[in-house]
Design brief:
The chain has seven helices and six strands; from the N terminus they run βαβαβαβααααββ. The protein has helices at about 25-40, 85-95, 115-125, 155-165, 170-175, 180-185, 190-200, and strands at about 1-10, 45-55, 100-110, 130-135, 210-215, 220-225.
Length: about 230
């Protein structure tokens, strides 16, 4: 039973050590912390983290490799380092003071519909009270200085993702085209669609979109979907 779902992006700048004196990610971090706080407030028995990544892995353990992102601290061996999406999730959870078990896994950005459906159903079918934290970025081609440069096609697709999260519309997320999303560098598509499968079949009451902006040419969205509180 999913008691709450939260969507956060995963830019390394959410790690405070990387922002220096001018905290350019302060507003985004605040929104993510509020969203994770809502997840914790739903009193889950376990928090399941699903992060978009280059490859899929059912269970991932490791440490936050701050130095690998250019920050201070000891070097974390590659074999012990969490991938970026899970590293950011781990930090957000730690900063929120989570005291329940956390299970982390990744889903490949190019995962096909069968995999996204399987991963989503696996979360939905768990008997515990589950808090689902989804780490997913939207389009990275929203400006001339964006990682993928400017592609005007990204704006309607990103707009559809934003509206779906704001309205709790799982079906709209399932309509995203994997090939087009890959072309637009919407690397969170697979994680969002896994979430949509996990939350399909029942309306989402009271969804909240806490943040939507593209300060670095990448659309970052933060949302909370309440779940079944029986």
């Amino acid at each position: 039973m999913i008691v709450a779902t939260t969507v956060c992006p995963s830019p390394p700048l959410l790690l405070r050590e990387l922002t220096g004196g001018q905290d350019v990610a302060a507003d985004l971090r605040k929104a993510c912390e509020e969203a994770v706080g809502a997840l914790v407030a739903a009193a889950p028995d376990v928090i399941v983290v699903l992060g978009a990544d280059a490859r899929s892995a059912e269970r991932v353990r490791g440490r936050v490799p701050v130095s690998a992102f250019g920050g201070p601290g000891e070097r974390v061996p590659a074999a012990e380092a969490l991938p970026t999406s899970l590293a950011v999730a781990r930090r957000l959870l730690d900063d929120t003071g989570v005291r329940v078990p956390v299970e982390m896994g990744t889903i490949a950005a190019d995962a096909d519909p069968a995999e996204t459906a399987r991963r989503g159903r696996a979360v939905a079918d768990r008997p515990e009270r589950v808090g689902l934290l989804v780490m997913a970025d939207a389009g990275a081609r929203r400006g001339l200085r964006a990682p993928g440069h400017l592609d005007e096609r990204t704006f309607p697709v990103d707009g559809a993702i934003r509206a779906a999260l704001a309205e709790g519309d799982a079906a709209a997320l399932l309509d995203l085209d994997p090939a087009l999303c890959a072309d637009l560098m919407i690397n969170g598509r697979s994680a969002l669609q896994a979430m949509a499968h996990a939350r399909s079949g029942a309306p989402v009451a009271g969804p909240r979109l806490l943040y939507a902006d593209d300060p670095f040419g990448v659309l970052y969205l933060v949302a909370v979907w309440p779940g079944d509180r029986r």
